[in-house]
Amino acid sequence: MGKKVLVIGEMKNNKLRNVTFEAIAASKLMSKENEVIGVICGEGNLEAQATEMIYFGADRVHTIENEKMKAYTSQVFAKAIIHVIDKVNPDAIIMGHTAVGKDLAPKLASRLNSGLVSDVIELEEFGGNIVFTRPIYSGKAFEKKIITDGIIVATIRPNNITPLDHDDTRKGELEPVNITIDTVDVIIKDVLKKATAGVDLSEAKVVVAGGRGVKGKEGFEPLYELADLLGGAVGASRGACDAGYCDYSLQIGQTGKVVTPDLYIACGISGAIQHLAGMSNSKVIVAINKDPEANIFNVADYGIVGDLFEVVPQLTAEIKKMKLAT
Amino acid sequence: MNIFVLLKSTFDTEEKIEIRDNRIDDEAAELIINPYDEYAVEEAVKQRDTHGGEVTIISVGGERSEKQIRTALAMGADKGVLINIQDDLEEPDQFTTVRLLQAFFEDKEVDLILAGNVAIDNASGQVGPRLADKLNLTCITTITSLTIDGGVASIERDVEGDTEIIETHLPLLATCQQGLNEPRYPSLPGIMKAKKKPVDELELDDLDLEEEDVAPKTKTIEVFLPPERKAGKLLEGEVTEQVQELVSLLKHEAKII
């Protein structure tokens, strides 16, 4: 018997984030029989986004359109989602382990008196339980968890679960839901965009990261060029952040972000244990460092001993050449 | 202002992780204040210095956590509370921790609760938001700036690199993000003073809770280490040759670009 899984969709600049499609796929990993019910909240018309969720495998989608839902706020979105939970009565709830997911999922789990497994990278059905795998100690170890009581609530780490194929012949019902929002405790005055305008670091397929070796703010420029070319994001070691070369939002490591891209290019990073915790589960690691003894070479698939200011621009040029040739 | 800080003892970030009997072996590990909780302690002390009042550190843990509470007291907090579950509970989860804290806060007047946005060990990121929900407090996660004026809190928060500027009111629970402040090192006089500051120890009984009230909702069934990464190929030759080889390897061997 299939169960009902509620997938909470998430949008950025009015487009669904990839992790929403990954969450739909995760619902089907729990059981192919599962019915996947999507929900998205936003200010304007959400029909296109809801339909997209259907194409990616949702069976039906609730849309909540409200002028107070232009941007995510914990109180308003929680109220809306809880309204849908009461209506749908799901057996499980899945969403992305993103800024929104980290804020909202614990609140929902608390309200439902449920267990929550956050930051899941893998899940499977085993012996009647859903077994979730998640990194602990920033990826220095992993644990497998089950939820023993209440509705299953889980957040999945972006980039780890493959979405289902996009199928635009799929059909599913869209069900608008109306809610009234009276009091608002939190007012968003402004949002300052910073860091890279492009790809989000935690979702990037390619990360080009700089350490103390970049020597200054300007030193990051060749890294940005390479990242842009590869459609990736720029990250940094704590050393580079502490030295003021870049913003802390770029920090990768045990006290920063944990990333698992397909390709990680470490430039001028020595490879302290705390940094390795944040990136050593990347699929392919390239290290560029002047010091042949640098620890980063112990985890790199490919290493170049050399000056990053010489190597990185050449690498960018060479990849450009290759792209032109193919 | 009545300010509380939720503090967790975690492994020092230098520690290697070892597994014994399907759990993380923590006996020999050096413990520290969870680095994100350090921002919370620093902020609490700063807010108290501005607005007056008292900072209480509260930690759910074992006997060893007293040392981290004392460090927070040496940083300037006024008193500590340790909810010691070492002997009573085998496998607490976030529900357990929050249930204990909820019981503790039942008869407390709260203006501000600060916590780290995540702990660097289990990284669940749940305790702050779950507790706020139970205490019916506004919850703001990953804050990077906090200014309180009267009952109004002006806050900047980090949202995946963007900065959201928001306004809300007390009472409030906020979780702290890197960039909020520079946590101070405890000074020698601070350490001396901390020795005389009170640290209360509470157990399940003291909170009028039974074991089944705090029974976890999740269970860890396996803990394992990632496969060790082997050092790969160090390329050779002139930089130009190395770069060409690298691009070729990424394209043909790793098939990644």
From TrEMBL, chain A:
Q: Which domain of life is it from?
A: Bacteria
**Record keyword Protein transport present:** no
Task: Identify a single GO molecular function assigned to this protein.
Answer: flavin adenine dinucleotide binding
List cofactor names only. Answer: FAD
Residue positions annotated to bind FAD are: 212, 237-238, 251-255, 268-275, 289
Q: How is the cofactor bound?
A: Binds 1 FAD per dimer.
Please tell me whether the keyword 4Fe-4S is annotated for this protein.
Answer: no
Against PROSITE patterns, the record matches this protein to: ETF_ALPHA
A single Pfam family it belongs to is ETF
Q: Which Gene3D superfamilies match?
A: HUPs, TPP-binding domain
Please report the stretch or stretches of sequence annotated as the Electron transfer flavoprotein alpha/beta-subunit N-terminal domain. 5-196
Keywords recorded for this protein, A-Z: Electron transport, FAD, Flavoprotein, Transport
Q: Which GO terms describe its biological process?
A: fatty acid beta-oxidation using acyl-CoA dehydrogenase
Query: What InterPro entries does the record point to?
Result: DHS-like_NAD/FAD-binding_dom, ETF_a/b_N, ETF_a/FixB, ETF_alpha_N, ETF_asu_C, ETF_asu_C_CS, Rossmann-like_a/b/a_fold
Report the sequence similarity comment from the record: Belongs to the ETF alpha-subunit/FixB family.
Q: What is this protein called?
A: Electron transfer flavoprotein subunit alpha/FixB family protein
Q: Which organism is it from?
A: Aquibacillus salsiterrae
UniProtKB/TrEMBL annotation, chain B:
Q: Name one GO cellular component term.
A: cytosol
Which is an annotated GO molecular function term of this record? electron transfer activity
What does the UniProt keyword field contain?
Answer: Electron transport, Transport
User: Taxonomically, which superkingdom?
Assistant: Bacteria
Is the keyword Cytoplasm in the record? no
Tell me which CDD domains the record gives.
ETF_beta
SMART domains to which the protein is assigned, alphabetical: ETF
Pfam families xref list: ETF (PF01012)
Q: Which metal ions or organic cofactors does this protein require, according to UniProt?
A: AMP
Q: What GO terms in the biological process aspect are recorded for it? A: carboxylic acid catabolic process
Ranges of residues in domain Electron transfer flavoprotein alpha/beta-subunit N-terminal: 21-211
Q: InterPro entries from the entry?
A: ETF_a/b_N, ETF_b, ETF_beta_N, Rossmann-like_a/b/a_fold
Family the entry assigns: Belongs to the ETF beta-subunit/FixA family.
**Quaternary data:** Heterodimer of an alpha and a beta subunit.
State the function annotated in the UniProt record. Answer: The electron transfer flavoprotein serves as a specific electron acceptor for other dehydrogenases. It transfers the electrons to the main respiratory chain via ETF-ubiquinone oxidoreductase (ETF dehydrogenase).
Protein's recorded name: Electron transfer flavoprotein subunit beta
Q: Could you read off the lineage of the organism from its UniProt record?
A: Bacteria, Bacillati, Bacillota, Bacilli, Bacillales
